[in-house]
Amino acid sequence: MPAPPPSMPPPSPSVMSVCKNNQVCESVNLPPWTKITLASSDSEIERLIARNELKDAEITYFCHVPAILQDGPQCGLVALAMASQEYTKPVSVGQLLAEARVRGFTQHGEVYSVDYMATLAAEYLPDHRPDILIDLQACPDALTHALSHGAMVLIPYDSDFNHAPCLKRGHKAHWALLVGLISSRQGYYVLSRHGKSRHLACWPLRDLIESNGNLEEEGTARHAGGYVIPKGGVGGHRGLRARALALHPYI
């Protein structure tokens, strides 16, 4: 992956929120070196571009990461395991689940805290630097900045019947791994993988950020024995709302 320009300021070691004069994501001027050309093997992306009728679409960033399907409420751990395949020492969902249980982050595989996910990423993905992105609705440029500079992004959102972003106040909370960014006349779209499909998904970035910002509480249909909820709740400062985790590769 290309290295960021030398003038790019280093992010905070634990929390990064990038905003250029409070402009929305459509106003980001992406560096020219991020533009890539689709290979013939990327026909799935071409179909997604056609299906969404994206005009003048440019693939700003894309990382080939194989899909992993989840077994039970393990979507966050599955997304992290998928991301680890990009690095030198992939980690299994089973390893992540065992560690998350030892640390008291989960009972059944659920992860309702971006902070918990960052701790697991720091422990098991040694070839990257995890940064928590905050206030995503106020500053959506954080996501486009991270993706256009070579990071994958783990992001929680509400998942609709077709797994696209929706607004259910967190009752359908799910994790996705953002592996691509498309710029077009219609705005930015993200390419993502998640544990309920073998196929890439393509969503409007604005829809995803809105869904992420509506995560307020866990759903009423809970696993027997309950879930581990961080102090302050799903919508709190250690929870899921308006937050994501960028995984920056070490160059």
Give an account of the 3D structure.
- This protein is an alpha+beta fold.
- It has 6 helices and 9 strands, in the order βαβαααβαβββββαβ.
- Strands 1, 2, 3, 4, 5, 6, 7, 8 and 9 form a 9-stranded mixed beta sheet that branches.
- A hairpin with a 5-residue loop joins strand 4 (152-159) and strand 5.
SSE layout and pairings?
Elements: E1 15-16, H1 43-51, E2 58-62, H2 75-84, H3 93-102, H4 114-124, E3 128-133, H5 141-148, E4 152-159, E5 165-166, E6 173-184, E7 187-193, E8 201-204, H6 205-212, E9 244-249
Parallel strand pairs: 1-3
Antiparallel strand pairs: 2-6, 3-9, 4-5, 4-6, 4-9, 6-7, 7-8
GO biological process, one term: proteolysis
GO molecular function: aminopeptidase activity
InterPro entries: ACTMAP (IPR040043)
Number of domains: 1
CATH superfamily: Cysteine proteinases
Mean pLDDT: 84
Work out the oligomeric state of the chains in this entry.
Answer: single chain
Quickly count the helices.
6
Question: Might you state the CATH topology name?
Answer: Cathepsin B, Chain A
| The level-1 CATH class | Alpha Beta
Radius of gyration: 17 Å
The percentage of residues in β strands lies in 15-25%
Structural class of the secondary structure composition?
alpha+beta
- The gross shape turns out to be globular
> Which series of helices and strands comes N to C?
EHEHHHEHEEEEEHE
**Stretches with pLDDT under 50, minimum 5 residues:** 1-41
* Terminal-residue CA separation: 8 Å
Helix content: 10-25%
Q: Give the beta-strand count.
A: 9
